[in-house]
């Protein structure tokens, strides 16, 4: 009950609430460590000993989920914009961009998704690269090596109290989806061809035999 | 914008109404404008005259779903089906803008069997011209 004697504190909170006034622990949104009150408020009564309660000095705030979504969207916009305009990042992703070549690209990098942790400290950026294997490796390696630079530029562009740590992760869902759709299309084409042939020659029993021949791994259509 | 192209006249016959261009073009250019909320895919010939176009909105998606990569993929599929009938085999792709449509359209084109010659990024970049809109506060 001792904390009720202290006046309410105003502590900076990294999730962007400018003046977060500490209410008594009945507020549901925050988990505050009671040790924080010791430093800023009035005198410590001589009989009390706070050492046993000092566990961690970190303040953790869980931001509003709507705000988390908004921050994620904004980060996605900023990062995509940076990929388009920032010379350093483009050179890291595509080393031949520095030669000019009138923007004839060998691979294309897109930011497909951004996930932000609920305390806005860690950002996972899912990147999808279109191109061959080597282009993918080069792009991912380049991005990962520029993570600190990206973090500093993002901090300059966006007004966040604490700029989050950025992690780049390769996103394979586009490719998988594309492969699945290619296989489905191929099956559909073969089926429609079979139907046409079946109608012409008036024998529909052949349809079932050819299903075994369709090998899922052969469905990948490479066009060059 | 409009290049003066001499029309080989079908007008003289007195026909009213536009005649469908039955030109067979083996090579074309696919322009993709991928913004955050929508994707527009336009197919033109090499000189820039539009053959056909489609967008995520015209494919029946509304609202926030237009910005998704699946919508971009369907739009690309629509256009390619129209154009493959005219016998286009090779294409060059010009991509404009950020957005998820960039990747999805490229993959859709590659899946469809049209040869990709080049991929170019033609996002308009000012040499420090007009003042950009104010920063969004979040």
From TrEMBL, chain A:
Pfam families, per the entry: RBFA
GO biological process assignments: rRNA processing
SUPFAM superfamilies: Ribosome-binding factor A, RbfA (SSF89919)
Residue ranges, annotated region (Disordered): 194-224
Coiled-coil ranges from the UniProt annotation: none
The protein's name: Probable ribosome-binding factor A, chloroplastic isoform X1
GO molecular function terms attached to this record: ribosomal small subunit binding
Biased composition (Acidic residues): 209-218
InterPro entries: KH_dom-like_a/b, RbfA, RbfA_dom_sf, Ribosome-bd_factorA_CS
NCBIfam families assigned: rbfA
TrEMBL record, chain B:
Region Disordered: start-end pairs: 1-23
The entry's keywords: Chloroplast, Plastid, Ribonucleoprotein, Ribosomal protein, RNA-binding, rRNA-binding
InterPro entries associated with the record: Ribosomal_uS11, Ribosomal_uS11_bac-type, Ribosomal_uS11_CS, Ribosomal_uS11_sf
PROSITE patterns for the chain: RIBOSOMAL_S11
GO biological process terms held by the UniProt record: translation
Major localization listed first in the record, in broad terms: plastid
Subcellular location: Plastid
CC per GO annotation: plastid; ribonucleoprotein complex; ribosome
Annotated Pfam families: Ribosomal_S11 (PF00411)
UniProt feature, compositional bias: Basic residues: 9-23
Keyword check for Chloroplast: yes
Gene Ontology molecular-function annotations: rRNA binding; structural constituent of ribosome
Keyword Metal-binding: no
NCBIfam families: PRK05309.1 (NF003698), uS11_bact (TIGR03632)
Family affiliation: Belongs to the universal ribosomal protein uS11 family.
Protein name listed in UniProt: Small ribosomal subunit protein uS11c
Protein species of origin: Arachis duranensis (Wild peanut)
């Amino acid at each position: 009950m001792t904390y009720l004697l202290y006046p309410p504190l105003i502590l900076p909170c990294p999730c962007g609430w400018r003046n977060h006034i500490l209410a008594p622990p009945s507020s549901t949104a925050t988990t505050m460590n009671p040790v924080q009150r010791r430093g800023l408020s009035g005198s410590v009564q001589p009989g009390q000993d706070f050492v046993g309660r000092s566990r961690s000095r970190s303040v953790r705030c869980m931001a509003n989920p709507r705000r988390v979504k908004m921050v994620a969207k904004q980060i996605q916009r900023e990062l995509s914009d940076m990929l388009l305009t920032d010379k350093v990042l483009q050179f890291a992703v595509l080393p031949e961009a520095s030669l000019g070549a009138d923007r004839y690209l060998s691979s294309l990098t897109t930011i497909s998704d951004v996930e932000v942790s609920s305390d806005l400290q860690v950002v996972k950026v899912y990147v999808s690269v279109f191109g061959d294997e080597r282009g993918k490796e080069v792009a991912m390696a380049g991005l990962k090596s520029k993570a600190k630079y990206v973090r500093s530029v993002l901090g300059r562009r966006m007004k966040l109290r604490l700029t989050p740590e950025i992690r780049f992760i390769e996103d394979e869902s586009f490719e998988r989806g594309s492969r699945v759709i290619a296989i489905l299309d191929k099956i559909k084409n073969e089926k429609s061809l079979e139907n046409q042939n079946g109608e012409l020659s008036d024998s529909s029993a052949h349809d079932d035999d050819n299903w075994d021949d369709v090998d899922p791994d052969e469905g990948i259509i490479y066009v060059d | 914008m409009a290049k003066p192209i001499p029309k080989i006249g079908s007008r003289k016959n007195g026909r009213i109404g536009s005649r469908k261009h039955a030109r067979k073009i083996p090579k074309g250019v696919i322009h993709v404008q991928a913004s955050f909320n929508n994707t527009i895919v336009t197919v033109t010939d090499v000189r820039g005259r539009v053959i056909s176009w489609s967008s995520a909105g015209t494919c029946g998606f509304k609202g926030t779903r237009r910005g998704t990569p699946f919508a971009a993929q369907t739009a690309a599929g629509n256009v390619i089906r129209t154009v493959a009938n005219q016998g286009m085999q090779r294409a060059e792709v010009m991509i404009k803008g950020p957005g998820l449509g960039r990747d999805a359209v490229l993959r859709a084109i590659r899946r469809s069997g049209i040869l990709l010659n080049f991929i170019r990024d033609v996002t308009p970049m000012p040499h420090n011209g007009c003042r950009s809109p104010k920063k969004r506060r979040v």
